[in-house]
Design goal:
The protein is α/β, with parallel strands linked by helices. It has one domain: Metal-dependent hydrolases (TIM Barrel), CATH 3.20.20. It contains nine helices and eight strands. An eight-stranded parallel β-sheet has the order 1-2-3-4-5-6-7-8. Keywords: Hydrolase, Metal-binding.
Length: about 260
């Protein structure tokens, strides 16, 4: 049986997709991946991602400033984000990728928190969900979200924390992004978490071209491999595949309200 999927996190504005968009979308569609959300990482990618969404029916845009690029994020970039969110392009569905990261060298964590806070305020002001990055910062991120009380909530993408950390985000109304980590046998903690969380809390993603699946190490990840993440999720969970697929699509639409 074939299913319809949404890759809720794919950096389609980077190689190997650049210059091969139509071919890449055809490959994704052949695997059932009918829609792809493309989050930005820096302000200089905003125009490109909006243009991709405008030019290709399966693509939808999220605009945000990623914590890994904190050195590039200043007031002008936040102003640029605010202006574009106010314009509300039709296929803009979220603020992202935003968040916190303590895994990187020289994290400038106070600045990260300040930039995150500014973007959460913008998401609240414009009634948009958020796509969240978090590495070694789940507790700090949950605290920031608790304080901000976003009406539309969001997703903690590529989640690899503990069950209790996932449950803390879910209690706040946030979704958990299921990615290629679960395809690795050694990732027992993450596999166990994704097996136990309520289906109502899960979204499907690849983080392509990053986070290659097991068996594809050293190759760029691709959106069509969301179908393989789904297959692994089905192996880990007790529910039938059609029920899992239906929940994933329903959750995606509930969070992102993607226009037809």
């Amino acid at each position: 049986m074939s299913y319809a999927f949404t890759d809720t996190h794919c950096h389609f504005d980077f190689p190997p997709f650049t210059g091969h968009e139509a071919e890449s979308l055809t490959r994704a569609a052949s695997a059932g991946v009918q829609r792809i959300i493309v989050p930005t990482v820096t302000a200089d990618r905003f125009a490109r991602v909006l243009r991709l969404a405008q030019d290709h029916a399966p693509l939808f845009a999220a605009l945000g400033l990623h914590p890994l690029y904190i050195a590039q994020h200043h007031e002008p970039q936040l102003d640029q984000l605010a202006t574009l969110l106010a314009e509300r392009p039709r296929k803009l569905v979220a603020v992202g990728e935003i968040g916190l990261d303590l895994y990187m060298d020289n994290p400038q964590f106070e600045r990260q928190q300040s930039v995150l806070q500014a973007q959460l305020k913008l998401a609240k002001q414009h009634d948009l969900p958020v796509i969240l990055h978090s590495r070694r910062t789940h507790d700090q991120l949950a605290a920031a979200l608790r304080r901000m009380q976003l009406p539309r909530r969001g997703v903690v993408h590529g989640f690899a924390g503990s069950l209790s950390q996932a449950q803390a985000f879910i209690r706040l109304g946030y979704y958990i992004g299921v990615g290629g980590t679960i395809t690795y046998e050694r990732a027992q903690k993450t596999r166990g978490v994704m097996a136990q969380l309520p289906l109502e809390a899960l979204l499907l993603e690849t983080d392509a071209p990053d986070m290659p699946l097991a068996g594809y190490q050293g190759q760029p990840n691709r959106p069509e491999r969301a179908a393989e993440v789904f297959q692994t999720l089905c192996e880990l969970r007790p529910e039938p595949a059609d029920e899992i697929a239906a929940h994933l699509q329903r959750n995606t639409q509930a969070l992102f309200a993607m226009p037809d």
